[in-house]
Amino acid sequence: MDQDICFGNIVVDCNDEQKLCRFYKQLLGWEKREMYGHPAVRNENGLVFLFIEDEEYVSPIWPDQLNKQQKQMHFDFQVEDVAVAVQKAETLGAVKAKSQFGGDHFVTMLDPAGHPFCFCAKE
């Protein structure tokens, strides 16, 4: 039987779901919500980041290193001014990754739980 399948939420594992929710709410300016008993943020188009705390969470290593926790995915955010976005993220608790490969096109950051994300210059 066929049924429509639509994209639901992006679930982000972490060691402190409230802290990571606050970070992304402040960074993106999205609405804070609670879903399924966990904190979440939602944009005006309905895209949701749902934060799930895991006691055994291990931050990914970026760039990848043999025998270390690998990243599964990362977020790319399009911004008008990469330097301004980086500065804002740093004031909220993110750090600029030590290794950078984007040149003038993007900067890789690590959120407070260690997930990599990039600020990409709008083209």
TrEMBL record:
InterPro entries: Glyas_Bleomycin-R_OHBP_Dase, Glyoxalase_6, VOC_core
Source taxon at top rank: Bacteria
PROSITE patterns assigned: VOC
Residue stretches in coiled coil: none
Pfam families documented for this protein: Glyoxalase_6
VOC domain ranges (all copies): 6-122
Gene3D superfamilies linked: 2,3-Dihydroxybiphenyl 1,2-Dioxygenase, domain 1
Name of this protein: VOC domain-containing protein
UniProt organism field: Propionispira arboris
